[in-house]
């Protein structure tokens, strides 16, 4: 994320016309990406820690965890909006920046689908299809 995506700008595959590329990468992209990445990692770690000791065996207990999961989903989503709003720096870079930060957000979502306790493995949306794809 912090090496490959800025390289697309440095190699002029993606262009920024109204600002120096290096200044934008150092002052806006890295800061915004770091915010989204850090909040996503923190939310994932907290999710793992609280679900590691979760006792969810009935449907009602699992349903309560869905609400908790959606609340943890909001933190990275808010950091994504914060990064796009405050750290865009250049209107030319807004489209690719949004796509790259959404990819970072998707990494967060994907990481939460696999290593959760057995009783909560179907809580994150999309986990049923992903697990059936891998033969579980």
Describe the protein in words.
By secondary structure, the chain is mostly helical. The chain has one domain (4-133). Helices cover 70% and strands 0% of the residues. It is elongated, with a radius of gyration of 18 Å.
Instruction: Kindly state the percentage of residues in helix.
Output: 55-70%
The CA-CA distance between the termini, in Å, is 30 Å
User: Helices and strands, in N-to-C order?
Assistant: HHHHH
Main beta-sheet annotation: none
Tally of helical segments: 5
The total number of structural domains is 1
How many beta-strand elements? 0
**In angstroms, what is the radius of gyration?**
18 Å
Structural class: mainly alpha
- Detail the poorly predicted runs: none
Output mean pLDDT.
78
Brief summary of the model shown:
This protein is mostly helical. Helix content is 70%, strand content 0%. It contains 5 helices and no strands.
Offer a few descriptive terms.
single chain; 136 residues
Write the layout of secondary structure elements.
Layout: H1 4-10, H2 21-52, H3 59-87, H4 94-113, H5 127-133
């Amino acid at each position: 994320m912090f090496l490959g995506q800025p390289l697309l700008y440095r190699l002029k595959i993606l262009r920024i016309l109204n600002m120096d590329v290096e200044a934008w990468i150092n002052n806006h992209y890295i800061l915004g990406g770091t915010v989204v990445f850090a909040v996503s990692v923190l939310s994932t770690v907290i999710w793992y820690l609280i679900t590691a000791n979760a006792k969810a065996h009935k449907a009602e207990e699992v349903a309560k965890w869905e609400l908790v999961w959606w609340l943890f989903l909001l933190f990275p989503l808010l950091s994504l909006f914060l990064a796009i709003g405050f750290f865009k720096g250049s209107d030319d870079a807004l489209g690719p920046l949004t796509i790259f930060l959404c990819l970072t957000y998707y990494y967060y979502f994907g990481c939460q689908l696999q290593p959760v306790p057995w009783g909560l493995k179907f809580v994150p949306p999309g986990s049923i299809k992903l697990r059936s794809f891998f033969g579980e």
